[in-house]
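tool_call: predict_structure(chain=1)
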Amino acid sequence: MRVTNSMITRGLLANLNKHLSRMEELHFQMSSGKRIRVPSDDPAATSIGMRLHTSLNQVRQHQANLDAGLSWLEATDAALGEATEVLHRAKELAVYGASDTLPQDARDALAQEVEQLIQHIVDIANTRHGGLYIFSGHKTLTPPYTLDPTQPVPTTPQYAGDDRLRLYEFADGVTVPVNVPGNTVFDPVLDALVDLHAALKQGDGPALSGTVMNKLEAALDGLLRARADVGARSNRLELARARLDDLELNLEKLVSHTEDVDLARVIIDLKVAENSYRAALASGARIIQPSLLDFLR
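tool_result:
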């Protein structure tokens, strides 16, 4: 077979282009850190990587849900803790007011403080977190309690929220409620404080030491149960958060193993490709001999 200069040139250029293409691929891998640029590079690894990325996105969404739920529960616990302090003060006032030696003027002064406690409990019940009322159930834009400023004698305000639970998903099909409907904890508290105020104004010592004190104790027990429930939910979410952190790390390792390159190996391959390219250039310069046109200049 006759070999012409054009055949040698075409072959040389084809081989040089192959070397350049290989070097460009290696440069991409070094700059991006990824070994797959298009699905055709490794269809099997591409399919595995897509599934891993989907799982990783789900884990990160669940982590975001857990963070939001924990923040909500922390705000709830802080509010319930403040309400507990108010009830302890109310019990102290009931004990003072139940004394037979206490004049009515002193009981009236205690009743005025109870009015302030009622207003403070309403403020606590209307606590907002991120612009949402945390004790209104699903009616997070509606304040759960509103006092009537025209009412001279304190009365129990009507609950304006609902008793629905806000559920946050932290695993596939697994949810946990993060809120406490206000009527379950604050209705008994407000009822007890209103009765305390009425008994102080009436100077009813037996009621203060009897029925009123019992209602305060019952309301306090309800607050403590609610705080215990909130604490249990928080602990569960924190454990789930730790598990998701471990799962995220494991998935990231799998994604890296599937998609990332071995940088040391790529550097070696690139050096080999560069040497091959230089050798091809050198051999091409030797193979392509001067033509007749070079002597006719």
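agent: The chain has a mean pLDDT of 86. Proceeding to next step.
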